[in-house]
Amino acid sequence: MAEITPWYNTRIDCPVCDSKIEYTKIRYKSIKLLKQDTDFCPYYEGENPLFYEAVICPECGYGAHVTSFQSINKYEKARIREMITKRWKKRSFTGHRTIEKALEAFKLVLLNLTDMEAPKSEIAKICLRIAWLYRYRNDSENERKFLEHALKNYMDAYGQEDLSTEGKIDEYTCLFIIGELCKRLNRYDDSIKWFSRLIMLNADPQHKDKIPQRLMETARDLIQEIKDHMAAAKEETN
Ligand SMILES: [Zn+2]
Q1: How far is the centre of ligand 1, averaged over its atoms, from the C-alpha of 130 (Å)?
Q2: Alpha carbon of 173 to those of 49, 66, 209: distances in Å?
Q3: Is residue 97 part of a domain?
Q4: How far is the CA of 30 from the centre of ligand 1 (A)?
Q5: What does pTM read for this prediction?
């Protein structure tokens, strides 16, 4: 009997070149979520499914997050054909992925999104995942670099995009993540400002029901952590 691996290949149609392609998925039964960092970075027992979220077409080089692979418009397709496919050397991304292979796939997705002028929220989502991959590898310099990119794009998304569209990060989680990323990047005043905006929305009955209360609890905890940290730092300089 063949050995059962935690990963398997599944088929999908590439919306850019119309090829039937394969990509690799993880059997959810084979893994267990152990914990998540405050910016939602997940840790698993068993294979990490995050490594497989960047789907690349081996034929034309188009790549996207697995949840948005087929949502691409005419204009974006034309950009991919022009900017990516013309330079693409056919290669496969199926099978087991190391962190390095996952980074390569995610960076290709980021290149695709930049070239097709994708919404900032989608660019931010990929930058955040690249930062997490560097975190798993204890590469804090590159982690910070991609957290900065994620933060900038989430801020732009908050200001420019309609976040009530299905499939997008909702405005409350977006506010939370901006506050959280500011905190991670030691921009404490900004962090408090963004978390406070979320807390203000929570005071409005029109919004309150839509905000996950766990998000609010974590936001309050993080504000307190920042205040404690700032008070301690002030004491040290006195
Ligand atoms: Zn393709």
Answers
A1: 23
A2: 22, 20, 14
A3: yes
A4: 30
A5: 0.94
C-alpha 63 – ligand 1 centre gap (Å): 8
Q: Which residue has the tokens 């068993």?
A: 46
Question: Whole-angstrom distance between the N-terminal and C-terminal Cα of the chain?
Answer: 70
122 plus 34 within the same structural domain:
yes
- Looking at the 3D structure of the chain, how many domains does it have? 2
In tens, the pLDDT along 124-174 reads 999 999 999 999 999 999 999 999 999 999 999 999 999 988 888 999 999
Same domain assignment for residues 26 and 127: yes
Query: Could you tell me the residue range of the domain that residue 209 belongs to?
Result: 170-238
Do both 110 and 178 map to the same domain? no
Backbone angles phi, psi at 55, to 5 degrees: -100, 130
Q: Tokens representing 225? A: 């952590």
Residue 123 CA to ligand 1 center (angstroms) comes to: 20
Asked whether residue 146 falls in the same domain as residue 199, the answer is: no
Ligand 1 centroid to 224 CA: how many Å? 48
Cα 58 to ligand 1 centre (Å) = 7
Q: Is residue 157 part of a domain?
A: no
